[in-house]
Write a structure and sequence with these properties.
This protein has eleven helices and nine strands. It is of the alpha+beta class. It has a four-stranded antiparallel β-sheet, with no helix packed on it.
Amino acid sequence: MDFDLSEEQRLLKESVGGLLADTYDFEQRNKYTKERGGWSKAMWARFAELGLLGLPFAETDGGFGAGAIEIMIVMEAFGRALVLEPYLATVVIGGGFLRHGGSAAQKEAHIHSIMDGSKTFAFAQLEKSSCYDLSDVTTSARKNGDGWVINGDKFVVLNGGNADTLIVTARTKGAQRERAGIGVFFVPANATGLAKKAYTTHSGSHAADITFSNVEVSADAAIGDPENALQLIERTVDDARTALCAEAVGLMDESLKTTVEYMKTRRQFDAPIGSFQSLQHRAADMFVALDQARSMSMFAAMASDFDNANERATAVAAAKVQIGRSGRFIGQQSVQLHGGIGISMEAKIGHYFKRLTMIENTFGDADYHLRRVSESGTLI
């Protein structure tokens, strides 16, 4: 099997890497965190100009028809630069729902606005008791004439305070954890009856807790079948998990490079600490963990083309297991090898560790996905 990037993919990697190298160093990132919503609107416009916001959409919809490998390339670069902009929430998740389940009218209404950077999305899924269970939904959507009325609470909605449109999971029938009876709905962020509490997360990104009190939406707000949308949700969330795996690889790669450079300059006992054999062994172990994570991230990206949904989901779960383990190890070792400065706000290495921690706990940690792999019985 050929794992080399194509010429177009190499050009994409160089373009994204070059843009971020010029515009997204650690000091610039700190400035972006102070902008409204916690990210740079100017950078979002640059992403649109470069075509990054239209990558996964079909050419018939005005996009570039790229696949999971191209998203992997972009997300790795975003991880290296600690990018704050809501690419995951808008392009990967919002775009994923449109690509996998959106009607022609919904695609026409939303895709162009995503690609030109004028609209961002947020996925309102997590509830107080749901943890990682996508079928655990208590937020309700009840028929109201031709439309729907949504009631309930959602938590840690990434980009929720700044998004133009929310994508909301809600139960249309059945009990709390039944797989049937779950729908997905587009909800305008300024809808009557919608209340938000926005805040900054541990890793510096922004999220919001959102309450829906008799929020009315039209009949065409439902994405796919409003009574059987769980498979659509699982498919789109697996896309998000795959993208997060790639972002984590970028974070780990930069963490290792930063740590090795620090070991070359930090002196102890009149010698660089990188000359100590025990610390060299730690760096070697970090390299192995990174290589394992990169291999599994590539496996998850390639699995997006699997015809069998169970095999695809198991491959993504296996990748999330390795990403969680490698990320925790590399993050902890990086901070420890930096010493006390590693946990200061001024040192970027601590921010990499925080982001890796957030990724491990987004859409399922290593233990959760290990159970999924075990229950599946196979990776192929």
